[in-house]
Design goal:
325 residues; alpha/beta; 13 helices; 8 strands; binds adenine; binds zinc ion
């Protein structure tokens, strides 16, 4: 499965940090992060609340543009080894310079430098989507949206929201999404990972995203599933993440196959791969095992993912050739 060319639309850059990479930075900076690792060196957490805390603790040692340059290279190396030819990554100015526009520009410059190097040496193309973090609140989201608007262009191509879906509401973030949209950014939003179908309806009605992060709980309301299919809303589905966080017991119980069968545009991503002990190749292998998905199905979904990418048409045409190879 590694060699099949893949497109990944839903990957949090910090969430993709290998634990050894974070441990190395912690040692360099003399920060004690031992509490967030288990005896095998993996990230240690139980449940989504702890996951978010460990994620933020790991991120606390990423304190300079140079750290992000190295992180981006490490992450892209892993993605390329899994056959990813095009990826979009979530970037949060919260963690990159505390939402100061000047500092954010420096972090972004370093991340892009790494992306250019990876494209040259590994043949993988990356674009960025700026995400605000729901549980940090609307005021910080507004500052994040300003960072996004100031750096929107051919590389920063989207705006979204991640974090704890159980707090606040889409309308609390409307100003930020309007600001990002006016700057030309395409819109995605985490919704329906934890939230019931009504929260997805609220997200669609309020923020009008083209794509939903997860969106899998739509399966509990088949009228909503039909609506997603009709609207052409794309789901950034991360099956291994949902299983690891206990939303579904295993891949066979995951709704991705049924959503696809009902005409919803599904895509496949890893979310925060080392946290969930996954890779793009493992997602493919598990989907093959659970639903007998074959090469034709994976190629169709990769093409569907590229169609839903936020990059420009020239980039898409270039990547399409790689998918056909
Ligand atoms: N941030 C990183 N991973 C996330 C997830 N699975 N859900 C919400 N926010 C996140
Ligand atoms: Zn996510």
């Amino acid at each position: 499965m590694k060699e099949l060319p893949k497109v990944e639309l839903h990957l949090h850059l910090e969430g993709a940090a290998p634990p050894a990479f974070i441990r190395g930075l912690a040692a360099e900076k003399k920060v004690d992060l031992s509490g967030i690792f288990d005896e095998r060196g993996h990230y240690r957490y139980k449940g989504f609340g702890e996951f978010l805390k460990v994620y933020e603790a790991a991120t606390s040692v990423l304190t300079s543009p140079e750290d992000y340059r190295r992180l981006t290279l490490a992450v892209l190396e892993e993605s390329a080894a899994n056959g990813v030819v095009y990826g979009e990554t979530f970037l949060s100015p919260d963690f990159c310079g505390g939402r100061d526009v000047g500092a954010w520009r420096e972090y972004l410059h370093a991340i892009r430098e790494a992306a250019v190097e990876a494209e040259r040496t590994m043949g993988i193309t990356l674009r960025g989507i700026i995400t605000c973090i729901r549980h940090f609140g609307p005021e910080k989201a507004r500052e994040t949206a300003v960072c996004a608007a100031e750096t929107a262009g051919d590389w920063i191509v989207g705006f979204g929201i991640a974090g704890d879906e159980s707090v606040l509401a889409p309308k609390d973030f409307l100003w930020s999404f309007d600001c990002a949209r006016e700057a030309g950014l395409r819109i995605t939003a985490h919704s329906g990972e934890w939230g019931a179908p009504d929260t997805i309806r609220d997200t669609l009605a309020t923020l009008n995203p083209e794509r939903l992060g997860h969106g899998v709980r739509s399966i509990e309301d088949l009228a909503l599933v039909d609506e997603l299919a009709e609207r052409g809303t794309v789901l950034e589905v991360c099956p291994g993440s949902n299983v690891a966080l206990g939303i579904y017991t295993d891949f066979r119980a995951h709704p991705i196959n049924e959503l696809d069968r009902r005409g919803v545009k599904v895509t496949i991503s890893t979310d925060d791969p080392p946290f969930f002990h996954t890779t793009m190749a493992r997602e493919y292998e598990e989907l093959h095992r659970a639903f007998d998905w074959d090469e034709g199905q994976f190629r169709r979904i990769a093409r569907q993912s590229l169609d839903a990418a936020f990059c420009d048409a020239d980039t898409k045409a270039r990547i399409a050739k790689k998918l056909e190879a």
